[in-house]
Amino acid sequence: DTASVNFPMEKVGIGTNNPNKQFHIFASSTNAEIDLQSGNNTHWGIYQDNASGKLNFWHNDNQVIFSDKGVSAKAFCLNNYCIDDWADLKAILENNDSIIDRDVQIQP
After folding, report:
1. Which band of pLDDT confidence, cut at 50, 70 and 90, is reported for residue 66?
2. What are phi and psi of 66, to 5 degrees?
């Protein structure tokens, strides 16, 4: 037996009676958050900060933050090269010809 739930507008709302998309979470005075966890691993959270409006990906601390000014993260890693700050980026670009083959000026 399989139970089914039908939604006439094909939309689900948590904290709202008027969802604007297929899945809509609303929190009036706290952060609207989704937590994801597999097995015994520490969960990851995705939430919109109620005070700032920023979208955060959280795992023991904010790891990636999206705002109207762009994206910030603890580190960006591509192909085993991790960039934690401007010095790391400059070192990678200056010491690896396979990544880039032109003169680059890095300024914070």
Report:
1. very high
2. -105, 130
